[in-house]
Hints:
The protein has 168 residues and is an all-alpha fold. Helices cover 64% and strands 0% of the residues. Helix 1 packs antiparallel against helix 2 (30-55). It comes from Onychorhynchus coronatus. Keywords: Membrane, Transmembrane, Transmembrane helix.
Amino acid sequence: AAAGLSYVGAYVINTYKSYDNFLQDKYAVLPAVIIICVAVVMFVIGLIGCCATFRESRVGLGLFLAIILVIFIAEVSAFVVGFVYREKVKTDVQGTMRSVFEQYDGKNPESTVVDYLQEQLHCCGVKNYSDWTTTQWFNSTGNNSVPLSCCQQDVKNCTGRLDQPQEL
Length: 168
């Protein structure tokens, strides 16, 4: 379990590097760091449990049980906090994404990240393609279209025009 959590934490940190322009708050990577720390603690607790079992130590097994109960309480608490603050995180991320979309010009680093995000997640805009109609890029191009990264990958000759939403 500790090895699995370590992998998940490392994967999240690695993935975070691709989306760090959207998550401007550097504490967004904190959950991944916590996951890795929990993996290390789980490994140590597992060793304590194994050693206590092999030695048939009542004190060691009692300590193991107490640690497991504390971890269970911490997990329930983390779940409750995550559930309570989920809407705040959602609105914060959407606000940051909208500001990055506003900076889109097709050339700057934020534009590259927006294109990458839309291609990888197979999406267009923050909620849908109509989000592009309020951006400075959309108004400056004057061709009533969204970036080509909004196009479905299996559609050939997609122009990104809003009069063909089935291609987006």
